[in-house]
Predict the structure.
Amino acid sequence: MLARQGIISETDADAIVRGMEEVRREIEEGSFPWREELEDVHMNIERRLQEKIGAAAGRLHTGRSRNDQVATDVRLYLKEAINETLQLVRKLQRALVEMASANKGLIMPGYTHLQRGQPVLFAHHLLAYFEMLRRDAERLADCYRRTDVLPLGSGALAGSPYPLDREWVAKELGFSSISRNSMDAVSDRDFLVEFHACAALCMMHLSRMAEELVLWSSSEFGFVRLADEYTTGSSLMPQKRNPDFAELARGKTGRVYGHLMGILTVMKGLPLTYNRDLQEDKEALFDTLDTLQTTLKVFAGMVSTMQVVPERMTRAAEDSAMLATDVADYLVARGMPFREAHGVVRALASYAVERGRELRELSLEEYRRFSPLFQVDVLHLTAEASVRARDIPGGTSPRQVESALQEARRLLEETGGE
Amino acid sequence: MLARQGIISETDADAIVRGMEEVRREIEEGSFPWREELEDVHMNIERRLQEKIGAAAGRLHTGRSRNDQVATDVRLYLKEAINETLQLVRKLQRALVEMASANKGLIMPGYTHLQRGQPVLFAHHLLAYFEMLRRDAERLADCYRRTDVLPLGSGALAGSPYPLDREWVAKELGFSSISRNSMDAVSDRDFLVEFHACAALCMMHLSRMAEELVLWSSSEFGFVRLADEYTTGSSLMPQKRNPDFAELARGKTGRVYGHLMGILTVMKGLPLTYNRDLQEDKEALFDTLDTLQTTLKVFAGMVSTMQVVPERMTRAAEDSAMLATDVADYLVARGMPFREAHGVVRALASYAVERGRELRELSLEEYRRFSPLFQVDVLHLTAEASVRARDIPGGTSPRQVESALQEARRLLEETGGE
Amino acid sequence: MLARQGIISETDADAIVRGMEEVRREIEEGSFPWREELEDVHMNIERRLQEKIGAAAGRLHTGRSRNDQVATDVRLYLKEAINETLQLVRKLQRALVEMASANKGLIMPGYTHLQRGQPVLFAHHLLAYFEMLRRDAERLADCYRRTDVLPLGSGALAGSPYPLDREWVAKELGFSSISRNSMDAVSDRDFLVEFHACAALCMMHLSRMAEELVLWSSSEFGFVRLADEYTTGSSLMPQKRNPDFAELARGKTGRVYGHLMGILTVMKGLPLTYNRDLQEDKEALFDTLDTLQTTLKVFAGMVSTMQVVPERMTRAAEDSAMLATDVADYLVARGMPFREAHGVVRALASYAVERGRELRELSLEEYRRFSPLFQVDVLHLTAEASVRARDIPGGTSPRQVESALQEARRLLEETGGE
Amino acid sequence: MLARQGIISETDADAIVRGMEEVRREIEEGSFPWREELEDVHMNIERRLQEKIGAAAGRLHTGRSRNDQVATDVRLYLKEAINETLQLVRKLQRALVEMASANKGLIMPGYTHLQRGQPVLFAHHLLAYFEMLRRDAERLADCYRRTDVLPLGSGALAGSPYPLDREWVAKELGFSSISRNSMDAVSDRDFLVEFHACAALCMMHLSRMAEELVLWSSSEFGFVRLADEYTTGSSLMPQKRNPDFAELARGKTGRVYGHLMGILTVMKGLPLTYNRDLQEDKEALFDTLDTLQTTLKVFAGMVSTMQVVPERMTRAAEDSAMLATDVADYLVARGMPFREAHGVVRALASYAVERGRELRELSLEEYRRFSPLFQVDVLHLTAEASVRARDIPGGTSPRQVESALQEARRLLEETGGE
């Protein structure tokens, strides 16, 4: 570009390009003679280039400053990292879809307040996480868009006096656009804060899944058995399967929340433009990336390999207290206003509780004491029927879940999830 | 919709609509008879409706649950609040554009490390904040998109057994789409976390501007005088103008950071679906909104009314140490490799510092001791020339800043910024 | 004091004191004529005093500034609030002690990784929270000590030119000492940050207890039934007891964490001395206090009134997999090195798991296949025996727990816990 | 201890002690044969011990579990680290005391709102930081006290069935007391949270000092010149001294705040007892320690070596607007009530501001237009006189500052600050 714009000669440009290719080869081969006494990587490279091509090397740094170069490097790095992360989000989404597909008919209790609420398909429950991850992917894509801006050409802070072709450089380096204000460009770290916020949200979702896996692995729930690779046993208690990976993932949420808080604190109240405080941006980024990517990978593996214990789920789902809403809906379907039906079922349920019986243990005659609208079919209300009835978009009926699974698969194919 | 779908009769639907309009009128007029003994606003309204239209009121709640209704209400509320916030972002952007336009030629020092670095246009400096706010607006718009999803029809957690037309309801209520998974829909608060993250970023930008206004208002800088409405004086020291509003805004950044951490903490490790912990989402939202909107308003006023002190800025900008880069560029323009020019200027600057003189106080003869490339025009290097030379996109030259101002005005017109 | 030091006359001092007592009475009686047009509470009082005693009122403010006065007021307020909080901590400790005393012999599973680990006394489990709260009380007392310092006499920032007797004022106002540096005194908010940190730690403990109460209230665990006042039922499902108060408390942890981060952010990077940012210290303090005190009260009530379900705990505690450690200890007690015993039990447990049997279902002959050290008494290993064996300080044996209970009661009596 | 209590034989105990000393030597000499295939450091050591002393090595782990051992190790580590940190706090305090002593008479402006408020001694300003650090040291000492508790003997969670002498072990390992509840002991990380909170507060103080050093190093203030080791210059601008170390320290505040948030998040809502989430406690601890200790060291160096520029401070301190309070105090001393004096000075100051003159430029006759109490000595009001007048404990008068310096030196001697 410097030669195209007449800033340096073609000869010098050729020499620089040729020399830099040799330098790259040396670095890749590990034969590059790093010298600690030179200030940093930039000076090491420039010195080595000088040894290869002589004085022309002195023109390498023309039109650049460390401030705009560092900002460019971090953006290049994060762009690639976001793409890798998106792949891993999709990998976990695929694992959820596969586990859901393999257990299509399986019913479990749906919980509110950790109390059994209504029966749902296990597949429906898994797909709730698919949706959370879908939003995570959208947010990461939005963050990518704002990272995809070239700051090079902003100089130290005021712009460059050389007739640089910034648009051309952006194209060469794969950036979609160029920054619009040099002072903003060298001190902007929004894209990093935004990435940490995306990561914190995604880790929050994973912490919820982790919590559920821990619960489901307990003796009390017993809904799943995590694979050996994802548990550690007490050697004394071989039947014990500590869900260590899920717990670690839950714990690592704190780390990512902390990094988000850290970078926000760093930026608070900094006057323009570059301040050395900004150097604090890197370690946290590397650690958040590493944490998020590793956790996504672990979850993909953990979900793929977990063994469902259908009999425990089914038994819990048969708790007929969860059918109270269905009994009310039964009456509404037969013409009773909702609020009145609500009252009838409340009385009915209290009647059962007082007698230490479950709803499904009541006789038709007992039902009819509370409303003459009850017919024999009320006795056929089951978890299956309850699930089947919730057949509108977003509901847990097998038909809706099947269609959600298909849409999920389509999405994964489109976005090239492996 | 309930009638259109045959869930309730047309007669009941008409009665409900008619009754609800009366209820609305009563609430608006302040004549609604609120009763504390009824559980909440929902029950108050339903009871009042019953007094007006009788039994049909009992059908009002058909196909809804508090879980999906609350989620819907918060989303409706936030959508409107985001739009209001966007208006305020634009109002501040306009204030920056106007202040920049009114001071087009004014030069000030650009700082790195709070050390004078290179001269820049004051307008260029202000437009750096314009860019930050532009990204804030983009992020808020992305957040709006993810808030704009209707959860109604998700029931308590499993979906609804009634043949609700969710798409139609979405259209009626102004939502662009419907949620895809009922369990996710009733426990998703991502949009709130994302909004807090957007707000935290925006407050961070405002804290930087606040810091600069505090600095610029000090006796030592003296670049601006804030208007009386935005300062409090010590009554004993009438010349003292404490930048209280800027300080308060800077302080309020902590409050918004805190709310972001708060909501992330609330969500960490919550199992599906609804848990009462989620009730903690509201107060923080209201407070963040209130803080952000008020602060944006205050800044718009503070920027519009501040009085620039051109002579203090200009005097500071004349510090010729800031021209060192320009002297190096001068040599590069005359064919010297950048690294060599760098060495010459270093020697030259040390020479000046040792003699307690500024660069602009050196004679041509002294310049030429360091390189024969120096001609008489090196003595014409000034802050103005330095600024003028940075004439590539994003740079601080008057031409670039003028074009940035035009683009900024175009953007504000398009987005209807008042 | 102003008169004692000869700063104002005795006559004026008497008039001021007399007038201020009238003012106090008016405020207490609600008859004080507040005027909005006067700047703040200070000016209102001074003006009213003037109406009562004339010109001497103008001497009221002698030797004070708003900066040192506000700092004094907040410290007075927090000192009282800490003492109230300590009372509430003790109230919850007492509730734990009473619940533990009422269920002395009750055994439950102790968990690690939410997996059953070893049987413990329910009382021992409750006393773990007693210890956490004991540390909270210690930390609050340390914070009190650092709050208990009088800043009055620091003036706006540089100290006072009047010969104030600061030690005497400290004694009068109940402060243990006076601040040592005026610039520090008017800008120090350490005591607030420290209080928020104490509160965050205490809320963290309560969030752990909340999590356990939620788990224990689930159908799957079923260890406790929370009282009606601390649950909300679904009206349709009367047997459902949503642990709303525990969930809310868990959620409110986020709020207090957020306030801690908020005040830390406010203070970051503030130059000396007073800056208006500091005004942000109050609302968060009030909210943290209110949240912490209310949550402590709720927990005291919730713990006192919860109904334990001994049969569910006992059944869970009989899970003989938890006795593996005891079997190993059995062998060690008979001379086998720990590591070897460990190997024997591992083999034994695998043998049982492979056959789908529990440890307690194995015959002596089967035990002896793995080691000849096993005698018939190995069959008497039970949860009770396991608990009884852990009889060293801090252990779960009934003897140790009894002595811990006695010590806890002693502590509460000493500290005057109601 | 195991032998003293008869848990293992004297012979075995001797063998173990002897073997472990060899192991220690091997590790120190670097000749220990680490094997990756063994699970962790514990198993490596036990295996090696076995190679040296045979079967007795199997008794090494008797009466311990990883849970109580890890908790013990972290506490041992932190106790030492706190003591090191205290040494560094004192080192910085000493640097402040020395810098203050070397500039005893130097006057500078004291600021509120970054506006010049009242003249103060530079030494007084430095001692404000001494006080902040004193509180940091107290808090660290309190945290040490709560860390100084031995958890060993708590077993995995329920205590140990062996007759361990926990008090004796505590004494041997240098702990002041033993933990009182085994379930609490293995899951308590309060001491870590508390340490992070102490560190966050201390970093907050350092961030304030950093901000001031950055301000004071600017061309606009020009109060100090940081030593070459603590600045980086632009090579092109040798007179530029970027306060990089101060900026980095200010930035690192975010890192420590983040770790505090991280550990609080980890602990939120964890059920008892040990959960693998707790493993997240270590890296953050190491990083916070490293950050805090390094920053304290850097500040000690930076403060010791900074060069004060007395003429810039003095010139700024001569700004006579800062004497307004003194003029009011002058009138009060001559019998005028404070509020009235306040009014007189306000009028006087407005008069001066309107005429573009400073207070000290007014004639006695002009003063007397506002009050006949003014005598010729009012013209002698100077920054020196103002400072001298604030002569009560905590004030900025030379006498008070001298006594504060002496007390500071005494404290450092007592606490053995190097």
Observations:
- Chain B has three domains: 10-59, 66-316, 319-415.
- The two ends of chain B are 38 Å apart (CA to CA).
- Residues 66-102 of chain B form the longest helix (37 residues).
